[in-house]
């Protein structure tokens, strides 16, 4: 182990992002420690949550604190607003307070669902927020709690996250096809930027290193949009997944375009979730790959490499 390795403490374990951070720590020359459920329950009393996190983070001697935990069940959140608010709205403020007490930067992760998706084009960091549902509302209050607790923060808004592990849209599509579904209806009127969690993790290591190197540089702090390059609607994303599955000899399904009205869900989703990433590129020198290239990497891990045509 590198004695000079940056020490990063991650809240959350077993989720898409926490798993990716753990997996990629070494190749970034960092040492990562994680604390997640069930050892830590972010919906427990704020006093208990703060005590547990403070103890673990200070014992590790962390130089950066990353919150990778969240309540991410968008529809279920409509029925459990208090639980979602405790985890997404309140806990991030406690985590950021611990970072402030220890004088270390806090990196927090948020979502495109803080926007209502009614504006055209790509959203910038200071565009007005207006979440449509409980998940987005609670994530927005988490952003505000972090900002209120410490100026030494980076809030990274990402979207449409997929990974070779955990629960995500790519794995859901592949599973439905492998269960024998030959046609799937998928919404084609919600647009956004699919993002590989492997790219998010790489960006977080870069941002962590920048924050650590320049503790007094305010321009490195604040809100940043961090999504895969390019754009898609969910039906296009599904078609790309199945095209990749076919090339790898795995089961695929035909995709039928649906409107959101034809695919009713408990929570409303934004129609336009496209995020502009020029700020993080300019300030942190983070360039996100095209989502189609990153999808290939994730599909290689999930179902193997492409079969050669000859
Ligand atoms: N997934 C997506 O499409 C998107 C995610 N984001 C944001 O990215 C971040 C990472 O999300 P991602 O990794 O994809 O999410 P996952 O759902 O894969 O992981 C969430 C993690 O939070 C943990 N968690 C949930 N409840 C608690 C609790 N009460 N106490 C402690 N830990 C808890 C989960 O643990 P357990 O599994 O044990 O419940 C899990 O490890 C989150 O901030 C999310 O809001 C933003 C945009 C899109
Ligand atoms: C499974 C399925 C989903 N859909 C639709 C529902 C939804 O509009 C879209 C994607 O489905 P999901 O369940 O992955 O959507 P959802 O859980 O809303 O995904 C969101 O998760 C949270 C955590 C975020 O922060 C967002 O960025 C976004 O990634 O596709 C279909 O149209 N057909 C299907 O067969
Ligand atoms: Mg979901």
TrEMBL record:
This is dTDP-4-dehydrorhamnose reductase. The gene is rfbD. Belongs to the dTDP-4-dehydrorhamnose reductase family. Residues 7-301 form the RmlD-like substrate binding domain. PANTHER family: DTDP-4-DEHYDRORHAMNOSE REDUCTASE (PTHR10491), METHIONINE ADENOSYLTRANSFERASE 2 SUBUNIT BETA (PTHR10491:SF4). Catalyzes the reduction of dTDP-6-deoxy-L-lyxo-4-hexulose to yield dTDP-L-rhamnose. Its EC number is 1.1.1.133. InterPro entries: dTDP_dehydrorham_reduct, NAD(P)-bd_dom_sf, RmlD-like-bd. Keywords: NADP, Oxidoreductase. It comes from the Bacteria. It catalyses: dTDP-beta-L-rhamnose + NADP(+) = dTDP-4-dehydro-beta-L-rhamnose + NADPH + H(+). Pathway: Carbohydrate biosynthesis; dTDP-L-rhamnose biosynthesis. Its cofactor is Mg(2+). GO terms for molecular function: dTDP-4-dehydrorhamnose reductase activity. It is an enzyme of class 1 (oxidoreductase). Binds 1 Mg(2+) ion per monomer.
């Amino acid at each position: 182990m590198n004695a000079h390795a940056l020490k990063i403490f991650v809240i959350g374990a077993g989720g898409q992002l926490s798993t990716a951070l753990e997996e990629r720590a070494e190749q970034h020359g960092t040492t990562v420690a994680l604390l997640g459920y069930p050892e830590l329950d972010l919906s427990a009393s704020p006093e208990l949550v703060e005590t547990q996190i403070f103890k673990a983070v200070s014992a590790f001697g962390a130089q950066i604190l990353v919150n990778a935990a969240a309540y991410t069940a968008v529809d279920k959140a409509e029925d459990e607003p208090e639980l979602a608010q405790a985890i997404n709205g309140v806990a991030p403020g406690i985590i950021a307070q611990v970072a402030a007490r220890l004088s270390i930067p806090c990196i927090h992760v948020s979502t495109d669902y803080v926007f209502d998706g009614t504006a055209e084009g790509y959203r910038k960091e200071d565009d007005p927020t207006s979440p449509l549902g409980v998940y987005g509302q609670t994530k927005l209050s988490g952003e505000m709690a972090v900002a209120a607790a410490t100026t030494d923060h980076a809030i990274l808004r990402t979207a449409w996250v997929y990974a070779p592990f955990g629960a995500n849209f790519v794995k859901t599509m592949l599973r439905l096809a492998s269960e024998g579904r030959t046609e799937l209806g998928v919404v084609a009127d919600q647009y956004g930027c699919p993002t590989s969690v492997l790219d998010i993790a790489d960006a977080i290591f870069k941002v962590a290193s920048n924050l650590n190197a320049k503790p007094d540089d305010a321009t490195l702090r604040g809100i940043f949009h961090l999504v895969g390059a390019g754009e898609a609607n969910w039906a296009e994303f599904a078609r790309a997944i199945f095209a990749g599955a076919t090339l790898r000899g795995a089961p695929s399904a035909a995709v039928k375009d649906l409107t959101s009205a034809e695919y009713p869900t408990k929570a409303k989703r934004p129609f336009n979730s496209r995020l502009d990433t020029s700020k993080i590129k300019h300030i942190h020198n983070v360039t996100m790959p095209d989502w189609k290239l990153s999808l290939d990497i994730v599909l290689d891990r999930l179902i193997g490499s492409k079969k050669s045509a000859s």
